Amino acid sequence: MDIILASYTDPLEAQIALGRLQAEGIDARLDDAHSVLANWEWRLAIGGAKLRVPEAQAARAREVLAAIEAGAFALDDIADDDGAPLRAPDRESLSGRVAWLVLMLFNIPLPWRRRRDDSAVREL
């Protein structure tokens, strides 16, 4: 029989916990994860994504979840072969900046697209 070990309102956090439990050899499953992703406004109403494990493996699963919360699986600073710390890639690229600029320019009202003065048309 499976028991609900934890409930997560963040589906990504639930997937990380599920993956860690499965990596430890625990037969875990995640219920309502797709509902939580598809209907984010329902997350609290349905109780979030529920992490279920067999009752026999619950004690070990609780230990693993406690280790996750304590940061036991966090990555330390990673260095390359020369010992220099690796930097995360810059997510801002030139094409991304240009796309943002074009988007902002299209939202600006252009001066030559003003509405015609109706009084000038009536005089003709």
Summarize the model shown.
Pfam families: DUF2007 (PF09413). By secondary structure, the chain is of the alpha+beta class. The chain has helices at 11-23, 33-38, 58-70, 94-106, 118-123; strands at 2-8, 29-31, 49-54.
Structure description:
This protein has 124 residues and is α+β, with helices and mostly antiparallel strands. The protein has a domain at 2-70. Helix content is 41%, strand content 13%. It contains five helices and three strands, in the order E-H-E-H-E-H-H-H. It has helices at 11-23, 33-38, 58-70, 94-106, 118-123; strands at 2-8, 29-31, 49-54. Strands 1-3-2 form a three-stranded antiparallel beta sheet. The mean pLDDT is 83. This is DUF2007 domain-containing protein. It comes from Luteimonas yindakuii. InterPro entries: DUF2007 (IPR018551), N-reg_PII-like_a/b (IPR011322). Residues 5-69 form the DUF2007 domain.
Features of this protein?
124 residues, 41% helix, three-stranded antiparallel sheet, alpha+beta, flat
Specify the biggest β-sheet: 3 strands, antiparallel
Broad shape: flat
* H and E string: EHEHEHHH
The total beta strand count reads 3
Strand order of the largest sheet: 1-3-2
In the predicted model, the low-confidence regions spanning at least 5 consecutive residues are none
What is the typical, i.e. mean, pLDDT? 83
The number of helices is 5
Q: Percentage of helical residues?
A: 40-55%
